Amino acid sequence: MSETNNDYGAFYAVPIHRTDKWVIEMHGLIARTLQCFLQDTYGQGIWQTIAELAKLDFDDFEAMLDYDARTVEQVVDAAGMCLEKSRDALLEDVGTYLITHPNNEGLRRLMRYGGVDFFDFLHSLEDLPGRTRLAVADLQLPELELTDSAPGQFLLSCHSGAAELAGFGFVLVGVLRAMADDYGALVILDHRGALGEAEVIDITVVETDFAEGRSFELAAAPPPIRRETTS
Fold this sequence. Notes:
The protein is an alpha+beta fold. The chain is built from eight helices and seven strands, in the order E-E-H-H-E-H-H-H-H-H-E-E-H-E-E. The protein has a domain at about 120-205: H-NOX domain (Alpha-Beta Complex). The chain is about 40% helix and about 20% strand. The strands form two sheets. The protein has a four-stranded antiparallel β-sheet with strand order 4-5-7-6, with helices on one face. The longest helix is centred in the last third of the chain and has 16 residues, at about 170-185. The radius of gyration is 19 Å and the shape is globular. It starts with 12 loop residues before the first strand and ends in a 24-residue tail after the last strand.
């Protein structure tokens, strides 16, 4: 199997018509992201064990290919079994990984463009699908809707259609938790389950300046200039 790379993705699938049957195919970035998460977090040996449990007949997922959704679901199930984690906890860990792992610094920067503090970031979430397409042109995310329920309290609805991976809301919880830490905000998150086709997340912002956040600059600092000495 090859080494992991800097691929990051979204959890998206499209139904296609094949041999008179509807087959759900997922964007290859989903599967590749899941593989990178498992390799980077638990190591190559664990990934190989999970791949065997999932009965994969290939070594690595390719980000530019589409895969039968059942194959990706088999990997999720096998990972939960191998790691003794629930599906919800596993998907939340994937969301945290997308922001915190050094391989995904590009995605973290994309998310930080949402605003100068966590409140600004929350209000930018509805624009996330468009901003994501700046990085990956054909990538589509579930529609997000933010509602102010009280001062400092919000409801975030994740409208995942039937063609999208179940549990995207838990990935989003992981992303939100990691971004709160990134901004230095104290936030309480509660996945309240599904309401129709939407997963609902309750967000309470206790304090925006609770701790020192991670450093962030709009433009990455240039590499230091190496000065040659002359004798």
